[in-house]
């Protein structure tokens, strides 16, 4: 599958997640066969006003261990979006993605994210402003609509295509569902029938078989995974195996712990020890989810402020597991 002139690797993509898909998560996902990844969302306006802020430097941090990665922008102002794109044209990210899906109140109340689904003409102008400024493909990520009475993903996908978007990602929940309820994959199928650009399906893929089912049921060109990759970068290997009709061997508890420690170390590289250890808590909780004694281990880990204490606790946990 191509996004504009880019030939994308096979497999599932890692979806953008604010506070989650920073460099560390993208590197670990790439190692496990993720096809491509998208950064956390970056405010076009915030970036234009303070391009060198610490938060922006952290968000834009990338290195050679990354695979194919797109940079997601959000905003509601044509001049800000095109200015941000111009300034970021030379960044290593190989495409831009435009956020029309974020349901958060503070984003929507500024007319950004999923609020744009209520203003299709404006949304089209914003996509066009990015496309004109970009020397890379621009993709658009949408929801199914604002609420049940306003399902307009097909309209937004058509407008995005007409405005020059190279692909569209569909997360078929309405804004008012936030992340609850079930994604309605029928909406992905409808969008696929309505546009010629590639359609990437997203929502509720939790295993290899889910990915196959979404591809089969919706006809979408590729799939994208968000929450199921939290603490589980192996989902990408699992999906690749399913696509190739191969079996998948899940990671051992030891592999999980090793990945958790590496994840923490990469977070520390970016944010320093204090913040990196704090940031790692949620990831560690995801890595150990469902394992015996995980609640106790989580409580223990959350009490530590230093890298070595956390790493030791995880090490001890593995030894205890091995001893049964
Ligand atoms: C913690 C979190 C942060 C998210 N941040 C973003 C974001 O920055 N940009 C975006 O387009 N979607 C964001 N999303 C939505 C996901 O990309 C995805 O569309 C949604 O979670 C549905 O996919 P899933 O069922 O595989 O989780 C976020 C989701 C979560 C759970």
Give an overview in words:
The protein is α/β, with parallel strands linked by helices and 324 residues long. It has 2 domains: 2-243, TIM Barrel, CATH 3.20.20; 253-322, Orthogonal Bundle (Non-ribosomal Peptide Synthetase Peptidyl Carrier Protein, Chain A), CATH 1.10.1200. Helix content is 46%, strand content 15%. The protein has helices at 23-31, 44-49, 54-59, 78-88, 105-108, 120-133, 153-162, 185-194, 208-218, 235-243, 253-271, 273-288, 294-302, 307-322; strands spanning 2-3, 6-7, 13-14, 37-43, 69-74, 95-100, 138-145, 167-174, 199-202, 222-225. The strands form 2 sheets. It has an 8-stranded parallel sheet. Helix 8 links the parallel strand 8 and strand 9.
Based on the coordinates given, report the CATH architecture of the largest domain: Alpha-Beta Barrel
Beta percentage is 15-25%
Major beta-sheet overview = 8 strands, parallel
Please, how many helices?
Answer: 14
Query: What's the SSE pattern?
Result: EEEHEHHEHEHHEHEHEHEHHHHH
């Amino acid at each position: 599958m191509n996004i504009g002139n880019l030939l994308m690797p096979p497999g599932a993509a890692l979806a953008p997640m604010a506070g989650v898909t920073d460099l560390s998560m993208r590197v670990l996902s790439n190692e496990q066969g993720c096809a491509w990844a998208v950064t956390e969302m970056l405010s076009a306006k915030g970036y234009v006003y303070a391009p060198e802020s610490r938060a922006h430097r952290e968000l834009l941090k990338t290195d050679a261990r990354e695979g194919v990665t797109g940079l997601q922008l959000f905003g509601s102002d044509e001049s800000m979006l095109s200015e941000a794109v111009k300034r970021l044209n030379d960044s290593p990210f190989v495409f831009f993605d435009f956020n029309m899906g974020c349901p958060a109140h503070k984003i929507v109340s500024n007319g950004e994210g999923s609020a744009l689904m209520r203003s299709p003409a404006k949304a089209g102008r914003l996509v066009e402003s990015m496309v004109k400024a970009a020397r890379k493909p621009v993709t658009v990520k949408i929801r199914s609509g604002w609420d049940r009475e306003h399902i307009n993903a097909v309209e937004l996908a058509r407008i995005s295509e007409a405005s020059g978007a190279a692909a569209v990602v569909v997360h078929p929940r309405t804004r008012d569902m936030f992340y609850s309820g079930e994604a309605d994959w029928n909406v992905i199928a409808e969008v696929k029938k309505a546009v010629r650009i590639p359609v990437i399906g997203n929502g509720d893929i939790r295993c290899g078989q889910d990915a196959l089912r979404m591809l089969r049921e919706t006809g979408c060109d590729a799939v994208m995974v968000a929450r199921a990759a939290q603490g589980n970068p192996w989902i990408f290997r699992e999906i690749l195996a399913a696509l190739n009709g191969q079996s998948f061997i899940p990671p051992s508890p030891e592999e999980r712990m090793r990945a958790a420690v590496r994840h923490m170390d990469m977070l520390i590289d970016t944010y320093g020890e204090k913040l990196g250890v704090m940031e790692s808590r949620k990831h560690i909780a995801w890595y150990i989810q469902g394992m015996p004694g995980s609640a106790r281990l989580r409580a223990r880990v959350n009490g530590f402020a230093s890298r070595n204490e956390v790493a030791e606790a995880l090490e001890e946990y593995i030894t205890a597991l091995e001893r049964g």
